[in-house]
């Protein structure tokens, strides 16, 4: 496996685990970490033995945002021409489902990274926010867009304009996170969710992710049409035959992910 310096990479069964690992900087997202996360996630996405990914941080911080010290002297032409932060978009384009397991701070780019994932599990210690305004900038990895879609304009506008953090309970009430778990159980829970997803038919899981995400990109009629086409396409998979035969025969399906 490739050697990384800012992340830890592991695999358990069909789950690929990426742990952000810059403890001294609260997992601040510098360019090296961005490139390593994108590279590791892309490798898992292409690996037929992997069905689901988990991205997590430390007990204290999922990630405290883009690395302020790295970016403070940036100049417009350089970041514009380099498409700085652009590689993060590739995380949103992964085929396989990604679970974010968030404990502690998920601020700025950290909150944005969590929102790039498909299932967001929060420890009771999680704190979310887009504090970029306090630095004289705005979010740059989709925070103003994805937070607004997740929790609505009123709350997103207040959080983005004031830089206020919200705790796990408020985030769950607002619809940002799917579930809160005790901090000590966070990784086990996230791995269990990922193992459940990874055990499903891989083509069905990828179709499901694509279809749900389409809801954010299109009209209802087009989204339903898209879903119907993928639903029809699912009948071309061996796993559909296996899944339905297993139901009829009252046994557990043995999906081959084809
Ligand atoms: N970038 C660089 N370094 C950071 C960092 C960041 N985003 N967040 C924390 N660190 C560093 C601190 O500088 C400190 O390093 P030193 O020990 O060398 O001084 C170390 O991590 C520990 O941080 P603190 O001492 O500040 O820890 P704390 O517990 O007192 O506070 C915190 C925690 C409230 C999260 C605070 O660190 C903080 O406010 N961090 C910045 C949060 C932020 O503004 N994030 C948005 C960044 S901009 C962005 O993300 C843009 C975008 O959309 C892409």
Detailed description of the structure:
This protein is α/β, with parallel strands linked by helices and 258 residues long. Helix content is 45%, strand content 16%. It has 12 helices and 10 strands. A 6-stranded mixed beta sheet has the order 1-2-3-5-7-10, sandwiched between helices. A 4-stranded mixed beta sheet has the order 4-6-8-9. Helix 6 (143-151) packs across helix 7. The longest helix is centred in the N-terminal third of the chain and has 16 residues, at 31-46. 39% of the residues are buried. The model has no long low-confidence stretch (mean pLDDT 97). It binds acetoacetyl-coenzyme A. Acetoacetyl-coenzyme A binds next to helix 2, strand 6 and helix 5. Keywords: Lyase. It comes from Kitasatospora paranensis. It catalyses: a (3S)-3-hydroxyacyl-CoA = a (2E)-enoyl-CoA + H2O; a 4-saturated-(3S)-3-hydroxyacyl-CoA = a (3E)-enoyl-CoA + H2O.
Compute the separation of the termini in Å: 25 Å
Radius of gyration equals: 19 Å
Mean pLDDT, nearest integer? 97
Low confidence ranges:
none
Helix content: 40-55%
Strand order of the largest sheet: 1-2-3-5-7-10
List the helices and strands in order: EEHEEHHHEEHEEHHEHEHHHH
Q: What is the global morphology?
A: globular
What count of helical segments does DSSP give? 12
Please report the total strand number as a whole number.
Answer: 10
Decide which structural class fits the backbone: alpha/beta
Task: Give a short account of the largest sheet.
Answer: 6 strands, mixed
Strand content: 15-25%
Named once each, the bound ligands are: acetoacetyl-coenzyme A
């Amino acid at each position: 496996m490739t050697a990384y310096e800012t992340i830890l990479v592991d695999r358990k069964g069909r789950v690929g685990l990426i742990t952000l690992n810059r403890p001294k900087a609260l997992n601040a997202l510098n360019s090296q970490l961005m490139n390593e996360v994108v590279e590791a996630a892309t490798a898992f996405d292409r690996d037929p033995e992997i069905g689901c990914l988990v991205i997590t941080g430390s007990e204290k911080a999922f990630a405290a945002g883009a690395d302020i010290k790295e970016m403070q002297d940036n100049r417009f032409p350089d970041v514009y021409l380099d498409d700085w932060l652009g590689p993060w978009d590739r995380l949103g384009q992964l085929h396989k489902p990604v679970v974010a397991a968030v404990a502690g701070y998920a601020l700025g780019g950290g909150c944005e990274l969590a929102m790039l994932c498909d299932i967001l599990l929060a420890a009771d210690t999680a704190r979310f926010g887009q504090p970029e305004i306090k630095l004289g900038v705005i979010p740059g990895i989709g925070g103003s867009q994805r937070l607004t879609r997740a929790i609505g304009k009123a709350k997103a506008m207040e959080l983005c304009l004031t830089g206020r953090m919200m705790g796990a309970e408020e985030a769950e009430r607002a619809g940002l996170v799917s579930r809160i778990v005790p901090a000590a159980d966070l990784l086990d829970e996230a791995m269990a969710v990922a193992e459940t997803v990874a055990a499903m038919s891989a083509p069905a899981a990828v179709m499901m992710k694509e279809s749900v995400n389409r809801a954010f990109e299109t009209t209802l009629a087009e989204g339903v049409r898209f879903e119907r086409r993928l639903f029809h396409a699912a009948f071309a998979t061996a796993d559909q035959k296996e899944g339905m035969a297993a139901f009829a025969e009252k046994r557990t399906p043995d999906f081959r992910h084809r």
